[in-house]
Design goal:
Radius of gyration: 51 Å
Strand content: 25-35%
CATH topology of the largest domain: Heat Shock Protein 90
CATH architecture of the largest domain: 2-Layer Sandwich
Number of helices: 21
CATH class of the largest domain: Alpha Beta
Largest sheet: 5 strands, antiparallel
Structural class: alpha+beta
Helix content: 40-55%
Number of strands: 22
Distance between the termini: 66 Å
C-alpha cells in the first residue's frame, strides 16, 4: 500500500509541464558534446568512456533513453547510491528498475511521460525515488526529446534534481505562513521576532505594546530587561523548551497596572534557525471569567458537600453518566477509578428497591414526567444508606434525544431521625390511648355491661325452659350474638390500648368512623347528641395506620361531644367524607358547640393548648402529628352556623416513596 507521502508524490507526478525546460544538471556545451557522440538511431552504440565520466560527475541523475524508455546510458551516482550494477539497469525499461518498484502508479506515470516525450514534448514533474529500503528522495525529473537529422525523435534525454531540501524549505515557509495567518486571526495584542538569546530583532507591533512593554524603542533590547525578573525567567525557560523540542512553548504571566492585575499569555513559535516568533495576548477577561467559574464551582461543591446532595446527568442514548464529586462521596466510590453507567448504578440499589427505581425511570423516559423517590443503596463495603432522588428530562439544542438531569441526597440521618420520631410518636399515641380509655371508662363499662347483662338474663331463661322441656334454640342464638358483641368491644379496646409500631395499609374509612362512634356511644347518648353522616360512597379506601386514625377520630368526636355538652338542643354532630381531589379523601367533623376562641386558632395544634379546664393540651397536637405521619393533613375552620369544623385529609393510595420505605 502506498503511503500518504507516496500519494502526494503521485499527485505531483501527474502534473506534467509541456513547456520546454533546460536541463539543470549540465550546460548546453556539455549537452552538445554528449549528443555528438551519438550515432544514427539504428546504429547507436553505447556512449564513450569520456561521456560516461562527464555523466558520472553530474549531480544525482542523468541518462539517455530510447524512445521506448530503454536505458542506454546512466551516470554512476544513482547506481552507487542504491548499490546497483550497470547490468541491473542498462537495457531495461526505466520504470522497471529498482528505483520505481515501490509504486505501480509511479511506474504508469513514467510510462506516460516517455510516451509524451517520444511525441516531442518536454516533460517535467516531481516524484519520489526509492534509493534503498529505508531511504526515499524527492526528485524533480525532466524528459527532453532528441531529434535526428531527419527531424524525428530518436532518443530521450532524462535528468533529475534532488529537491528534498527545497521541499523542506517550502514546508517551513508554509508553516511560517500558517503561523502568521493564525496570529492575524487571533488578533494578538503584541508580537515580535526574538533571537534565541532573548534579543528583540524586529517587527514589533500590536495594539497594546505601550502597556505590555514599557518603551517604544525595543529593537535590540533584551527581553529580560523589559519585564520583571519572574517574567523574564519564564521567557528563558520557554526558549530552552522550544530549542529542545522545536515545538511552540506557551506560558502565562501577570503584570500590575493601576492596582489591577492583568493576565497575559505568551506563545513562542519556531521561526528562522536563530529566531522565534513571540505572540502575546491579553487574557485578563478570560482568566477573570475562569476564576469566577471556579469560585462558583467551589461554592456549589461546598454546598453539595454540606447538604449531602450530589448532581448527575445521564444521556440515555449513549448511556453516558456524569456524577458530581458528592455523588461519589455518597456512594463511597473512588472518582478516578470508576466510570459510571446506568447498569452499574442499578446494581448499587438495594435489590428490594431496584425494580421500583427502574420502573420509575422508565416511566419518566416514556412519559416525560419528573420523579421523586426514596430508596436504599448498598456501598461497596456493604453499608446500607437511604437516599432521595429527583430527576427530570431536558431537551437541549443540538441533541436528537433528551438528557436526564437529577440529584441524589443522602437522607440516612433524616431517615433515622424520622424513625426515632415515629417511635416517640407511637409511644405518645399509646399513652394517649390509655388516657382516653381512662376517660371513657364509665362509658365503656356501660357499653360492655349491656351485652353481659343480656347474656345473664338469657341464661336464666334458658335454664327455666330446659326444666320445662321447651325449645331454647332462639335464646341460644341471642346469647351467641351478645357474646360476639362483647368480644368486639374487648377487641376494639385491645387494639387501641396495645403498644405497637405504625403500620400503614389500605382500609375502609367508614369502618373506622363506626368504630370510633361505638367507643363513645355512651357519651353520645348521655349528652343527647344527634349523629348525621354525609357520604357520597360508603366504601372509601384510605392508606394510613388504621389504629392511629381511629384514635384521632375518637379524640375529635369526643372533643365535639364535650363542646356541645352545655349547648342548647338540637346538638348535631355531622361527619362527612368525600374525595376532594385525585387520590385524596377528606373527612370533616362539624359540631354546633361554642367554637374555638379566635386567640387560640393559630396555636390550636401546638402542645399544651386547650380550652378545657382539666385538659392537658396534647390531644390535638398528637392528632396533628399522627395524621402528618400517615401522609395527611389536619386543620380547623369555624362553623358558619356556630361551632367548629375539623378536617383531615388522607391519601387514597400508596406513594412510591412509602413503598420503598416499607420494603426496608
Amino acid at each position: 500500500m502506498d503511503t500518504p507521502t507516496d500519494q502526494k508524490s503521485l499527485q505531483r507526478s501527474s502534473q506534467f509541464i509541456s513547456n520546454p525546460a533546460p536541463l539543470t544538471q549540465f550546460d548546453e556545451n556539455s549537452k552538445r558534446e554528449v549528443l555528438n557522440h551519438r550515432l544514427p538511431e539504428k546504429q547507436l552504440p553505447l556512449s564513450s568512456h569520456h561521456t560516461q565520466n562527464r555523466f558520472g560527475n553530474l549531480f544525482v541523475f542523468v541518462g539517455v533513453f530510447s524512445i521506448e524508455g530503454i536505458i542506454l546510458e546512466l551516470n554512476r551516482v544513482p547506481l552507487e547510491t542504491s548499490q546497483l550494477k550497470t547490468s541491473d539497469v542498462i537495457g531495461k525499461s526505466f520504470w522497471e528498475t529498482y528505483w520505481w518498484l515501490y509504486s505501480s502508479e509511479v511506474q504508469q506515470s513514467l510510462k506516460q511521460a516517455f510516451r509524451k516525450a517520444a511525441q516531442g514534448e518536454v516533460i517535467r514533474f516531481e516524484t519520489k525515488v526509492q534509493l534503498s529500503e529505508s531511504r526515499m528522495m524527492d526528485l524533480d525529473i525532466t524528459f527532453e526529446p532528441y531529434y535526428n537529422k531527419a527531424g524525428k525523435v530518436c532518443q530521450i534525454l532524462g535528468s533529475a534534481v534532488d529537491i528534498t531540501d527545497r521541499l523542506i524549505a517550502e514546508k517551513r515557509v508554509t508553516r511560517l505562513t500558517a503561523q502568521i495567518e493564525a496570529m492575524s486571526q487571533v488578533n494578538p495584542d503584541l508580537f515580535f521576532h526574538m533571537s534565541i538569546d532573548g534579543t528583540i530583532v524586529g517587527d514589533v507591533s500590536g495594539k497594546l505594546n505601550d502597556f505590555l512593554l514599557p518603551t517604544k524603542a525595543l529593537h535590540q533590547k533584551q527581553i529580560c530587561d523589559l519585564f520583571p525578573d519572574s517574567v523574564g525567567s519564564q521567557f528563558e525557560l520557554a526558549i530552552d523548551q522550544l530549542i529542545q523540542t522545536q515545538k511552540a512553548a506557551v506560558f502565562e504571566y501577570t503584570l500590575q497596572s493601576d492596582l489591577c492585575t492583568h493576565w497575559f499569555q505568551a506563545r513562542l513559535h519556531p521561526y528562522l534557525p536563530e529566531e522565534v516568533l513571540v505572540i502575546i495576548q491579553d487574557i485578563s477577561e478570560r482568566r477573570t471569567t475562569e476564576i469566577e467559574v471556579n469560585r462558583v464551582h467551589s461554592r456549589l461543591h461546598e454546598a453539595q458537600r454540606l447538604a449531602h446532595i450530589g448532581s448527575w446527568e445521564w444521556d440515555p442514548q449513549n448511556d453516558t453518566l456524569w456524577w458530581s464529586e458528592e455523588v461519589y462521596r455518597i456512594l463511597k466510590l473512588p472518582e478516578s477509578a470508576h466510570q459510571p453507567d446506568y447498569h452499574s448504578f442499578l446494581q448499587m440499589i438495594h435489590e428490594e428497591d431496584r425494580d421500583l427505581v427502574s420502573r420509575v425511570i422508565v416511566n419518566t423516559l416514556k412519559n416525560d414526567l419528573p420523579f421523586s423517590i426514596e430508596h436504599r443503596i448498598i456501598r461497596p463495603n456493604g453499608e446500607i444508606r437511604y437516599v432521595h432522588q429527583q430527576a427530570a428530562l431536558k431537551y437541549l439544542p443540538g441533541h436528537s434525544t433528551s438528557l436526564m438531569y437529577g440529584t441524589i441526597q443522602d437522607i440516612t440521618k433524616k431517615h433515622e431521625t424520622d424513625r426515632m420520631i415515629q417511635e416517640y410518636r407511637d409511644e405518645l399515641a399509646h399513652v394517649s390511648r390509655l388516657s382516653v380509655m381512662g376517660e371513657l371508662a364509665a362509658g365503656l363499662s356501660h357499653e360492655l355491661n349491656q351485652p353481659l347483662t343480656a347474656i345473664a338474663n338469657y341464661s336464666t331463661a334458658i335454664k327455666a325452659l330446659l326444666e320445662q322441656g321447651k325449645d331454647i334454640s332462639e335464646l341460644v342464638d341471642k346469647v351467641i350474638k351478645q357474646s360476639l358483641r362483647s368480644g368486639e368491644i374487648v377487641q376494639r379496646l385491645r387494639s387501641l390500648v396495645k403498644k405497637r409500631k405504625q403500620q400503614r395499609f389500605l382500609f375502609n374509612i367508614h369502618s373506622s368512623i363506626r368504630t370510633a362512634i361505638q367507643l363513645i356511644s355512651y357519651q353520645i347518648h348521655l349528652k343527647q347528641i344527634e349523629i348525621q353522616s354525609l357520604a357520597e360512597n360508603h366504601f372509601i379506601m384510605v392508606y394510613a395506620d388504621q389504629v392511629q386514625i381511629e384514635q384521632v377520630l375518637v379524640n375529635l368526636l369526643k372533643n365535639a361531644v364535650e363542646a356541645m355538652a352545655h349547648s342548647p338542643s338540637p346538638r348535631i354532630l355531622t361527619i362527612s367524607t368525600a374525595a376532594v381531589e385525585r387520590n385524596v379523601i377528606q373527612i370533616s367533623i362539624k359540631d354546633t358547640g361554642p367554637g374555638i376562641p379566635a386567640d387560640l386558632e393559630e396555636r390550636l395544634f401546638t402542645p399544651f393548648t386547650t380550652t378545657k379546664k382539666e385538659g392537658v393540651g396534647i390531644g390535638l397536637s398528637l392528632s396533628h402529628s399522627l395524621i402528618d405521619g400517615s401522609g395527611g393533613k389536619l386543620w380547623y375552620t369555624p362553623n358558619p352556623e356556630g361551632g367548629a369544623i375539623f378536617h383531615l385529609s388522607l391519601p387514597a393510595f400508596q406513594p412510591h416513596q412509602d413503598h420503598a420505605a416499607s420494603t426496608a
